[in-house]
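User: Reviewer 2 asked us to show a designed sequence for the structure in our supplementary figure. I'm pasting the structure tokens here. Could you produce the per-position amino acids so we can include them in the response letter?
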């Protein structure tokens, strides 16, 4: 069986990573953050905006997201996440995990890494 091609999109040569990778029926999206230096609510929305825009690059929507890793500077900010996810994902929630991280810059409070599924039968 021949392996399908892996498509690396948005390659960052400086950091030596790809923020979007299509591999088979799955799309892996990393380093989604936005609104650096603003409130946690604005940063969560900003990260989801970046995720949504990256998914659009490969013809997908938030509804295709099946897994999210949510990184917080302060795990107490997890309390803001459910309300925002209810608004942004409209009942089509991915599985998710939340954990803390020491980010590279002090203004970052939140980041998302995600996996989306492309149903090629539709």
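Assistant: Here is a per-position design you can include in the supplement:
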């Amino acid at each position: 069986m021949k392996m399908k091609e892996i498509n690396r999109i948005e390659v960052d040569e400086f950091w030596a990573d790809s923020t979007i990778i299509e591999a088979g029926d799955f799309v892996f999206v990393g380093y989604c953050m936005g609104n650096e230096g603003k409130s946690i609510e604005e940063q969560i929305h900003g990260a989801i905006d970046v995720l949504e825009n990256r998914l659009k690059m490969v013809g997908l929507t938030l509804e295709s997201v099946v897994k999210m890793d949510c990184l917080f500077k302060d795990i107490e900010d997890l309390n803001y996440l459910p309300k925002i996810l209810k608004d942004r994902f409209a009942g089509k929630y991915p599985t998710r995990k939340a954990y803390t991280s020491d980010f590279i810059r002090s203004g970052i409070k939140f980041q998302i890494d995600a996996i989306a599924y492309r149903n090629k039968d539709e």
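For the response letter, you might also mention the following. The first strand starts at residue 6 and ends at 12. The domain at 7-117 is CATH 3.30.1330.40 (60s Ribosomal Protein L30; Chain: A;).
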